[in-house]
User: Fold this.
Amino acid sequence: MKIYRHEKGIIMSGRAWEVREKLKEYGKIYPTLQEWIQAELTIEQRPCQLVKQKPGDTNN
Assistant:
């Protein structure tokens, strides 16, 4: 699974079940997509980042 985060949004690619699980996980932390984007930009101050994960890895 890959998650691309940038200042205008987030792109997730991977198997459908991986994307659904990751959305559920982030949905518990951030009620809205806008809050997720702002939190990521505040923490890392990077315009774009690629995060690679192993299938079944929920530590991110």
